[in-house]
UniProtKB/TrEMBL annotation:
This is DZIP3-like HEPN domain-containing protein. Pfam families: HEPN_DZIP3. InterPro entries: HEPN_DZIP3. It comes from Mytilus coruscus (Sea mussel). Residues 57-186 form the DZIP3-like HEPN domain.
Length: 249
């Protein structure tokens, strides 16, 4: 009986730890990034700057455009980490990471530019969201929050915030008493975000496959047209028609 109780308690604690780091990724860090973009990109300039940027103008999703179109009324309150990362990166709103954006390895401990910390936030968000194991030990929890608080302290200084304003949010989240309803809410939000990420990735893969298929067909159509142009005596037979059909099918 006592062994079962201990196991249940331990499992509950591990899931609670996951809820803690999950809330940091889905709420606390977005709040900080919203402060950064609010300081660096006045709301009245955002739409014009985004539409003038070739990459952003062509690659934002419909829901992201909705937030941008409504920024004058709603501010940056609903902007999440992926969207703010795109905006900060492509509008050059902060000093970039030491090794550049989306480098193949994470920023080193000695690399502490604002861009380095934004890169850390993006990577940490993705890592937490797509963890294969939703159970987080106390040791791993401590490691996460040590990193979180270091980032918070540096970004406080960058934004000119009072010392401890961001860091205290992580301190409270790490140590607060979390009831079952709050834990359940945090975990459900993580599940929703993870499923949305997966669905968007699949949609992008399908779009890329369609584009590749169209490019393949277009390239072969061009080859056939050039072939016919170069040989005006080209006579199509049933066999040739079949080959062309198979290429373009």
């Amino acid at each position: 009986m006592s062994g079962t109780s201990a196991m249940t308690s331990s499992s509950g604690s591990l899931m609670t730890n996951y809820a803690r780091i999950g809330h940091a990724a889905q709420q606390v860090f977005p709040d900080i990034l919203q402060d950064i973009i609010a300081m660096e990109e006045p709301q009245h300039r955002l739409y014009g700057d985004v539409t003038s940027n070739r990459f952003l103008n062509r690659n934002l999703r419909a829901d992201e455009w909705t937030m941008i179109n409504n920024v004058s009324a709603n501010g940056y309150v609903n902007f999440d980490i992926p969207l703010i990362y795109k905006l900060v990166r492509n509008l050059n709103l902060v000093p970039p990471p030491s090794k550049g954006w989306d480098f193949h390895i994470p920023p080193a401990a000695t690399e502490i530019l604002p861009g380095d910390d934004i890169e850390r936030i993006r990577r940490t968000r993705n890592e937490i969201l797509h963890r294969g194991n939703a159970q987080v030990s106390d040791t791993i929890l401590t490691d996460y929050f040590t990193s979180f608080k270091d980032i918070a302290t540096r970004l406080e200084a960058y934004l000119g915030k009072p010392k401890g304003e961001f860091e205290q949010k992580f301190q409270n989240l790490e140590n607060c008493c979390m009831d079952e309803d709050t834990e359940k809410t945090y975990l459900e939000r993580l599940t929703i975000l993870r499923e949305r990420d997966i669905n968007m990735s699949k949609a992008l893969e399908n779009i890329q496959k369609d584009l590749d298929s169209l490019m393949y067909k277009d390239s072969h159509q061009l080859e056939i047209e050039e072939w016919e142009e170069q040989n005006k005596l080209f006579i199509k037979t049933d066999a040739v028609d079949f080959v062309c059909f198979r290429i373009l099918d």
